[in-house]
Amino acid sequence: MISMAEKLLVTRDLNIAADETPILRDVNFSIEAGTTTVLMGPNGAGKTTLGHALMGNPEYQVASGTITFNGEDITDYSPDKRAVAGMFMSFQAPVEVPGVPLATFLRAIVATRPELKLRGAKFKKRVAEIMDQLNMDPSYLDRELNVGFSGGEKKKLEMLQLLLLQPKLAILDETDSGLDVDALDTVSRAINLYQEMGGTLLMITHNTRILEHVKVDKVQVLVRGQIVDAGCSDLILEIDNKGFERYVAEGSGSASVAAAQENQSKAFSEFNVEDALANMEAALEEHDQAGE
Q: Residue 280's Cα: distance from chain center in Å?
């Protein structure tokens, strides 16, 4: 186990590009285990890019620098290897996966985390507990993953996965985007439950609304691909009152960042469903052979 004071995630001189377009420049920051860090910045600043880069999205190339997680250099790790290591990312727009029931998907992702010891009845009981905590209809389990779900329902499903997997680090990208009051309350409750488990959070947002419901330890401000300020939770109130104007220098540097993000945003939302199903079936077969 990592102590509370130990740094779980560290980036050093991280430079990220997409299609040879520089997006992030010399990003240096760290997240201590068991804490909540908020990454804020105006639209097009590169916040989502950083989240995807940390998670290993292949559409974003590490031009230079390193990413260390749990004391291990993961700069060259694939997304699935980072997930197995204990990283998790909740997306702005979760992808729909026709043909894959939610229950099957949950069993498949749990199968990659044998240390959770969630098999058979224990798995069903834990899923039921979380769905009850989040006021989710059990019938969701029989529906195809994210297909036909509203934006708020999709975000609830992301929170279900978060609480089920209990990752060491959760990266939440604009989780509050498009949520109504009820859905925001549910998502906030899930985040609070994860924090109570001792989980570590990186919350990406430009809106302070959800932060009213979450205990925040540190704030990082990203503008035009660079960390320009850092502080405690008091910085949130300052940004809420004054915006990001004092951080934004003259020029149009953010335009290339926004354009590159738009061109690359499909990386985790376009994939071969047949391959995904095959991978799930393999994971479930291995899980079942381990004994339920």
A: 21
